[in-house]
Amino acid sequence: MARRGSYAKGVAKREEILATALDVIARNGYGRASVRELADAVGLSQAGLLHYFTSKELLFAEVLRTRDEVDASAYATDDDPDITRYSRIIRHNADVPGLVQLYVRLSAEATDPGHPAHAFFADRSATFRREVAVAMREAQAAGRVDPGLDADRLTLMLLALADGLQTQWLMDPAIDMAAHIDEFFALVAGPSA
């Protein structure tokens, strides 16, 4: 029985670490969020914090996974088609520059197959492409996206656009990322949209 309680405490501590890291990185930025600062914020040593995640890179990948889950639940509504959610998420990203910076930097580093977060980003990308392609086909069936366009190609273009916009926005915060996503959807709109 003690083992079970210990496991539950470990899960709770891990969730506390992720929630705290999400807040600290969103507020202070990736470059200013050290493992020491995150460990101090949750009452652990650096080694104690990394016990839960194995490495700094895996900790930050889990922070991004948590961000994705939070955003998905915050921006998923039954009355809005899935594809329109993306401009709202991108608009929200402008409010959390530290998380955008973390995503851009870690995703670039994780292109190396030997990087600890490579599997996370490969899975995230495949899941995004699969789920958005379904939403794109639904939008085509509803007449919101031109049915003559290839949904898989549109999905990859949307992913590339969103990732590229985030990089450009970090260089020039005057760029309105969501406006560019909205324009993309206007360009691919179906005849009845």
| Major sheet | none
CATH class of one domain: Mainly Alpha
Give unreliable regions as ranges. Answer: none
Give the CATH architecture of one domain: Orthogonal Bundle
Question: From the helix content, strand content and strand pairing, which structural class follows?
Answer: mainly alpha
Order of helices and strands: HHHHHHHHH
* Average predicted confidence as pLDDT: 87
Write a concise keyword list for the protein shown above.
193 residues; 9 helices; single chain; Tetracycline Repressor, domain 2; mainly alpha
Report on the structure:
With 193 residues, the chain is mainly alpha-helical. The protein has a domain at 56-187: Tetracycline Repressor, domain 2 (Orthogonal Bundle), CATH 1.10.357. The chain has helices spanning 2-28, 35-41, 46-51, 56-75, 85-93, 97-109, 118-141, 151-171, 177-187. α5 packs antiparallel against α9 and α8 runs antiparallel to α9. The protein is elongated and about 60 Å long. The mean pLDDT is 87.
